Amino acid sequence: xxxxxxxxxxxxxxxxxxxxxxxxxxxxxxxLQETPEQLNLGYNRExxxxxxxxxxxxxxxxxxxxxxxxxxxxxxxxxxxxxASSFIVxxxxxxxxxxxxxxxxxMFGYSISRVATLVIVLAYPGEKWKARALAVFLILxxxxxxxxxxxxxxxxxxxxxxxxxxxxxxxxxxxAPFAAMFIAPSQNxxxxxxxxxxxxxxxxxxxxxxxxxxFANRYMLLLIPYMLIYPMLFxxxxxxxxxxxxxxxxxxxxxxxxxxxxxxxxKWAGRRTRGIVGLAVVFVVFLASFGTVAASQYFHYNFxxxxxxxxxxxQREYMIGQVILQAYPIISAATxxxxxxxxxxxxxxxxxxxxxxxxxxxxxxxxxxxxxIMALGGFIGFQxxxxxxxxxxxxxxxxxxxxxxxLVSFALALFVVRRITETNDWSLAKIEGHSTDDIPVxxxxxxxxxxxxxxxxxxxxxxxxxx
Length: 467
Description:
It contains 16 helices and no strands. It is mainly α. It has one domain: Growth Hormone, Chain: A (Up-down Bundle), CATH 1.20.1250.20. It is globular and about 70 Å long. Keywords: Membrane, Transmembrane, Transmembrane helix. The chain crosses the membrane at residues 7-27, 47-66, 73-92, 104-124, 131-151, 163-184, 219-239, 245-264, 276-299, 319-345, 366-385, 397-417.
């Protein structure tokens, strides 16, 4: 296996993320003795870390396009080491101040590295592997979160054992920089056909101009509601979880993105048709999620025996007991479908962006904006939920309005999906002075056939075929 092949480099990135993101999600709840119901479901409740995620995701566009991916992942591994070290300090000094500061630093590194990861996963695989590669990398996060939740729920060990867990976390974190060192510059990645990735040179001035231009692009404008609205709805309507087991069920629902990845990649029809059918699948799962959530909210808040004079803990214990007695099955279904549709919407959005361009710089602009707006939507949703004047009553109006807006965002996204072609023509159109007809689809020698949407630099492609 060649060092500069896409498969080798994707494997190295995966190892780096397993040693950082996956291990952190596995052990964080256990080390801090936080059960899943005390944590958020994918978006930040905390104002500071939310702002850091939103801003750093957007800044990630500039960083990813101006700095080699190797250095970005090295920086992330170092922030992860700082975060892992904060747990050691916390146990030794019995103070969480350092841990909170380290979490903010790590959030900055994580957000930038996630933009870099998604850009790599969109650009490196061949066209028939894009969605499945996306699914695998998303599952690295989803599955490790689910297993981490199970560990946190089932292992309330002594402080000494959790301290040992912190040391294990630190050890894995210290190995990660060595894996990141093997990540090659994106301009050196070459497919078996001899075709290089499209990595045009850029500078800060050009990036500012291009990003401003993105917001004037009709396809980006049509995708912005898709990026924003569902996370916002998810934040205030789809997170009413009274039980830690439901949190785990939510995480495992997300793992099913692999099935959508299979459907989008298997070439049973053209990419546009697969995109339209994929959106229909997301739409159907969303309807199932909406229906079960609407039903669960009725049961969740049907507490006729609730005494207002009780303390908060008494009221909460009573509500959880009533929910478990009355409607645990419907709430379990609502939780599972909510996790499933949130994962499908994220995967599908990134896949659509991957069909529009193979240019790494353009992909970074798409992904950075998507990640930032998605985090903003989740933050707004949670703030709406947190500032609900009476949390014991359902937010039915918000649920129905948010769901209607989500359906509108799907309709707007459909206009973009209908623009999908068999070539990622946004990048092909940038090949100066040549039409796509000049590029041979079949190689002139014994190399395997090349998908025209994989063609990157025209001059390098012609050189490869001339050999």
